[in-house]
Design a protein that fits this description.
alpha+beta; five-stranded antiparallel β-sheet; 17% helix; extended; GDYXXLXY domain-containing protein; 180 residues; single chain; six-stranded mixed β-sheet; GDYXXLXY
Length: 180
């Protein structure tokens, strides 16, 4: 006697549509992330930040290096907010961009987004440390994936770096180039 195959019931039409919607949503998300990156590079203000690699020995085991920016430690006197700053607080850092060869300097750290004049840019960040005289800030730009042919991979001494960043009008920032 031959085994009888059980008939598989047909899925209702609404369950056939769900996987297609999920795949479509994932495709839209990936395209949106890529488009936002390209738009930031194309439309953003160029700012040069001074940085140093935190530890070059990590390049032996990973593809990235952590960058320590000069604008990551700011005198507390530059705080412009109604209340005292606290850790994990979102802040806006007003930078004066002196042009391509010179690194940007901090004009102030604000709790609300300030209006930037010509030659200035606003970089979003958050407070990591609050000390009596300084504030520690992060910008989400601290991890840099080093290309295989970069001079950084061969270097063993942490030299000062110039990090060119593009800051989009909607606040997104992106590293465009890192050079010595």
């Amino acid at each position: 006697m031959a085994p009888v195959a059980a008939a598989v019931p047909e899925a209702p039409p609404r369950f056939k549509l769900l996987p297609r919607l999920l795949v479509g949503a994932q495709v839209l998300y990936v395209l949106g992330v890529a488009g936002a990156g390209y738009a930031t590079t194309a439309l953003g203000k160029a700012v040069v930040l001074a940085a140093t690699p935190a530890d070059l020995t990590t390049l032996k085991t990973t593809d990235f290096v952590r960058l320590r920016y000069a604008v990551a430690t700011v005198p507390r006197a530059q705080w412009q907010g109604p209340e005292a700053p606290h850790t994990r607080q979102s802040v806006y850092v007003l930078l004066a961009s002196a042009g391509a060869p010179a690194a940007a300097t901090v004009l102030g750290v604000y709790a609300a987004e300030p209006r930037a004049a010509a030659g200035q840019a606003v970089l979003r960040g958050w407070v990591t440390d609050v000390f009596p005289r300084t504030l520690g800030l992060r910008y989400g730009l601290e991890r840099y994936y080093v290309p295989a042919a970069s001079v950084l991979r061969k270097s063993t001494v942490a030299r000062p770096l110039r990090v060119q960043v593009r800051i989009a009008p909607w606040g997104q920032a992106r590293i465009v180039e890192v050079s010595e």
